[in-house]
Each structure stands twice: as structure tokens, then as C-alpha cells.
Design goal:
This protein is α/β, with parallel strands linked by helices. The protein is 40% helix and 15% strand. The strands form two sheets. The protein has an eight-stranded mixed beta sheet with strand order 3-4-2-1-5-6-7-8, with helices on both faces. Strand 1, helix 1 and strand 2 form a beta-alpha-beta unit. The termini are far apart.
Length: 437
């Protein structure tokens, strides 16, 4: 209240994965919620778990489990049950965050069609093509944003079969709003503060000393971070490592895995290493995983930042991405990256060295298949190139990734919200285009 005028915060509801889920989705929801709160909005995340005020819980940056006080982030994100947003009469706008493949997102969009307030999409797809019937649900929001122009183009082009009017509407009712991380936290200086920390708290220099010993012995230190999801081509990476070993090149591979499709994530990793041709002796000598507690309780920001900082190369052989947050986090701390040559990675790492991108098999899948399949042989070449030129590449990738701060994401999403509200005022509904039968 100021001079008798009541100032009311705009209330924004976000439907998505919960902000404490250890995934890029969870992290983006946390960062977007945090940014919107800092800009003066009242934010609630509606997600498919029991309602409670919560903090992002991957431990390290976020209280109450933050040991290093000058790195603590105290933002609390309020959450409610997933479908509760239907009954929240005071919400001014709903942001639907998700992919065209998820039942959770489809249910939210079905409700948006009947809503008397604007719905705005923040849509992603990891595929390089999607069927028209999947991308057609973009019409159920007043406006939508995508994290890359490549993803926006996929939605537009996928609707070409439905006619020029569809494509024009999708083009006019969409924009790019890049994902973002906390650039002030992902720095080389902060790496030094956590290098001696174990994953779940407490101090130990054992891990750091081990990496330094390997480096003195001439080992190339490679790390990767992935869900055990079929899109993350862990086989290609392990096969590339085997190729390097056969060429008498010393390689150490530090694995950071998040359980997504199997509770046997670490056992599956060893099995995949065997399939890639690695012997038991080679696996024991060069493949390193987090401590036992981490393997049983999950990775945290401690282990992610620490391993990124101790690595010479961050390898990300992905078959498809909407953005690629792990690549940005690695680059922000100054670790050179080798990744797959797909449009999204080319866009996010614009102006990065061409030799760092691993080519894909053009004939690996039937025509029209939606993912890329990286050559292990070409990935081995990329890893060697990055290692030999890492000093130059480290400087370049820090410069590139400084663009992707969560505050920029927030400002761009506010523009998307404003456009969505404007279009909703014009049409008084979210469903902006009727399919002609």
C-alpha cells in the first residue's frame, strides 16, 4: 500500500515437475520461480506430489542443507498439488512447462482450453521432429516460448502438413526464451570452495587428491552427467573411451548418473561398459563413480560442481536435447565440452569450435526417426581435439555460457506472459485456432 493505492502482486501458477526433482526440468522450474519472485510476482508451482512449501533439495546451494554459507540461496518455492490450480481463482496466469509427450502436460492443456484466464506455454522437445498431432496442442495456450530457436522451428515445421495458416499462427504466437542457470554460483572460484566436500556433507580431500594423482600420471580426465535415459548415448562414450585406450591413451572417466528408468543405474553402467568392449581390468582402472552414499541416495550439487571442476573435458553425447543445461553448467565453470552435432547444441554453443561436435550416423535409424546417433569413433576424435586445445576452448566456452543466466530467462518469460495476456484479452480464450474438419 502506497499513498492509499493498493499494489497487488500478479499471481503466476506454474504446472510442471516439482522444483526439487533432480533434473533439468526441476532446476529450470526452481530458477524461473526464483526469478519471477525476485521481479515481484507471487509464484506457486503446481506439481504431481503432496503440497508443501519446499526448497530445491539437491543439496549445496539451497538452504537448509548448504554448508558453505556465502553460496547459499534461500529462495523458497511454494508448491501445491498438480490439479489444484483449477480452483485457484486468484491466479492471473498459468505457465504450462513441459513436452508434447507427457500426460501431465496434456491434462493441464486440456484444462487451459476451458480457462477464464490466460495460459502460456514453456515447451520443449528433445526430438528433431515430432508428429503434427503432438505439436498441435500448442494451440491450447494463448502464447508459448521455447528454450531454443531450433525447438521453436521444430514445432512450426511439424505443423506444415496442416496448412500455412497453422504455421503462421504458431510462428506469431511463439518466441524463444533461453533456459538459465545461476551464473554467479557456477564459477571456477566456487569450484575451489567445494572440491574437498563429499557429496552429502563433510570434508574430504581424497577425491581431489586422486584426480590430481591421475593428472600427474598423464591421464585425460573426462566427466559426464546424465540420466540413465536412452537419449544419453552412454554406450557411444564408453566405446570412444575404449578406442582411446586401444590407442594407448590414458583416460579416466568420472560418471555422474541420475536414476531415471532403472534403479540399477550403476550396475547398468558397468554392463554397458562391457558391451562397449571394456575389460574388467579397464573398468576398475579408469571408470570412477561417486561414493557409496551418493549411489544410494542420489547426486547433489556438491558432486556435480566438484566433478565438473576437476575434469579436463565434459562429454555430452546426447541423441537429442531441448537445451542442454549440463553443458552450460560445465562451460560456465570453464570446463571444455565435447557434445553431439545437433541443431540445439550448435545454437546453445554458437561460435564454439566446430571440431568439438561429434557427427551422427545418417543411416543409423529408419527415415523419419527423431534422434541422432553419434559415431563413437568421431566422439573419440572430438575428445582428443578438446583435450589438446582445452586452454583456448575453456576461455571460449566461459564467454559463451555467460549468456545463460536465469535472470535473462526470467525477463524473456515475462515478455511471453505479457504477450499471452494481451492475446487472451483479444480472444477471451486460450484455444486460438480450430482444426478444420
Amino acid at each position: 500500500c502506497w499513498l492509499g493505492i493498493r499494489v497487488i502482486k500478479m499471481r503466476i501458477g506454474i504446472t510442471s515437475e516439482c522444483p526439487w526433482v533432480p533434473s533439468s526440468f526441476g532446476k529450470m522450474v526452481f530458477n524461473l520461480s526464483r526469478g519471477l519472485k525476485e521481479e515481484g510476482f507471487d509464484v506457486t508451482v503446481f506439481c504431481p506430489t503432496s503440497p508443501s512449501p519446499t526448497l530445491f533439495s539437491r543439496r549445496f546451494f539451497y538452504v537448509p542443507d548448504c554448508d558453505i554459507k556465502d553460496l547459499c540461496v534461500s529462495t523458497a518455492v511454494h508448491t501445491q498439488g498438480y490439479t489444484d490450480f483449477v480452483n485457484e481463482k486468484d491466479l492471473d496466469v498459468v505457465i504450462v512447462f513441459g513436452t508434447p509427450y507427457g500426460n501431465v502436460e496434456i491434462n493441464a492443456l486440456s484444462l487451459c482450453e476451458k480457462f477464464d484466464k490466460p495460459c502460456v506455454g514453456y515447451f520443449v522437445t528433445e526430438s528433431m521432429r515430432i508428429p503434427p498431432y503432438m505439436s498441435a496442442w500448442v494451440e491450447k495456450v494463448s502464447f508459448f516460448a521455447t528454450p531454443t530457436e531450433a525447438v521453436r522451428k521444430i514445432f512450426i515445421e511439424s505443423l506444415s502438413r496442416l496448412g500455412e495458416e497453422w504455421m503462421r499462427n504458431v510462428s506469431e504466437r511463439s518466441m524463444r526464451a533461453v533456459h538459465g542457470i545461476d551464473i554467479n554460483l557456477f564459477t571456477r572460484e566456487n569450484c575451489e570452495k567445494v572440491c574437498e566436500y563429499t557429496t552429502w556433507g563433510g570434508k574430504s580431500s581424497e577425491y581431489k587428491n586422486h584426480v590430481e594423482k591421475l593428472r600427474r600420471e598423464g591421464y585425460m580426465i573426462i566427466s559426464f552427467l546424465a540420466k540413465n535415459n536412452p537419449r544419453k548415448d552412454i554406450y557411444a562414450l564408453l566405446r570412444a573411451v575404449k578406442i582411446l585406450l586401444d590407442e594407448k591413451i590414458n583416460v579416466a572417466l568420472f560418471a555422474m548418473m541420475i536414476d531415471a528408468v532403472s534403479s540399477e543405474v550403476w550396475r547398468d553402467l558397468v554392463s554397458t561398459a562391457h558391451l562397449a568392449g571394456l575389460t574388467d581390468e579397464e573398468i576398475n582402472r579408469i571408470l570412477f563413480m561417486p561414493d557409496d552414499i551418493s549411489r544410494s541416495r542420489g547426486l547433489t550439487e556438491y558432486s556435480v560442481l566438484k566433478i565438473l571442476c576437476l575434469s579436463d573435458i565434459f562429454a555430452y553425447p546426447t541423441q537429442g536435447e531441448a537445451f542442454g543445461i549440463p553443458v552450460v553448467e560445465a562451460g560456465a565453470v570453464g570446463t571444455a565440452v565435447a557434445t553431439t552435432d545437433i541443431p540445439v547444441m550448435r545454437e546453445v554453443l554458437e561460435e564454439y569450435d566446430d571440431q568439438t561436435f561429434t557427427r551422427c550416423h545418417e543411416d543409423a535409424y529408419p527415415p523419419g526417426y527423431v534422434l541422432c546417433n553419434p559415431y563413437p569413433e568421431d566422439l573419440a576424435r572430438s575428445l582428443l581435439y578438446v583435450y589438446d586445445h582445452r586452454e583456448k576452448l575453456e576461455k571460449k566456452i566461459v564467454e559463451i555460457t555467460r549468456r545463460y543466466d536465469y535472470k535473462r530467462m526470467t525477463k524473456e518469460m515475462i515478455k511471453a506472459v505479457e504477450k499471452g495476456m494481451e492475446l487472451f484479452r483479444e480472444n477471451r480464450r486460450n484455444k486460438w485456432f480450430e482444426t478444420k474438419r
